[in-house]
What does this fold into?
Amino acid sequence: CMIEPDRSQIWAFLAAGVLLAITVAIADVTKIYAALVDAEKDILLVGVLLGVGVLFVRSRVWLVIFDAMGTAKGTLAVFQLFSVGEFLNNITPFGQAGGQPLMAYVVYDETEIQYEESLAAVMSGDMFTAVPLVTFGVFSGVFLFINNALTELVLDTLVFSLSVILGIFLLLVLLTIFPEERFGVVDTLREHVSVGDRIGSFLIEKIGNMREVFRIVGGNPTHIVRAALFAHLALLADVTVLYVVLSSFDVSVNPLYLTAIFPVSNLSKLLPTPGGSGGYEFVLATFLTTIAGVNFAVSVSAVILYRVATYWVAIVLGYVFISKLGLSIPEHIPRND
It folds into this structure.
């Protein structure tokens, strides 16, 4: 299976490369090289293996949603589909939030559900994934406050990032739960968006479909609890990967600082580069230095290796599974009449 990058993808990867190069230059290439040489390779290998584990746990959220929709798929099959979806999401030039239509196509192509339903399922999974950023962020803030370790910078960072995440999450909840007669967003959009506006039409369609599937998933509290549990375990595993990678540099960081940093660093994944690359590394490394007190060169080195374990490994696995499943990604996403 060959995937030909278009011009926008090439420019997006170039932009990510430039941002990463600037970050490395600020940290000093020689210091980064020295840090990488001194890192414990055995511990780094553990971090990479844990990165695969993060992908597996996150795929369980999809499994719960498929179960709720009555789609029979085994654990390994869902893991393969999720890996392919992550690959497609990570190579789109629109940040971490730009690949959902292609991720939905993979689900549509490999299951018996329609494309619109698969798109809604993918978006519902994203909503569950956002919840742990809030809960872990609040928990870390409260715990640090109780132990007199909540600095003004940490507090400001948490307030900003959690406010943005909660705002987005609540908007999605309103759009997916409230019926049109009580919350007429879809009708309002139809009045103000021209019929020929592709983006507007897509948004209208996505809102309506998300509402229906969210009702299906939310119809059984067991599904909500299971999906939320796996989403929290996935973020915990993600934090663990970064903690292990930092340990390979003989750096010990309070895990609560890491859970406080993750909400704001994850917002940077929305930058218009593949997976938020370049900007995400800079933001995460900067906060590791300013909040956790890690040397910036070590922070950049650790973040690069952390991204190898969680981002690049996901890309490799996804491409392997695309070939294994014999998938072909269309230029135009199908729509049901």
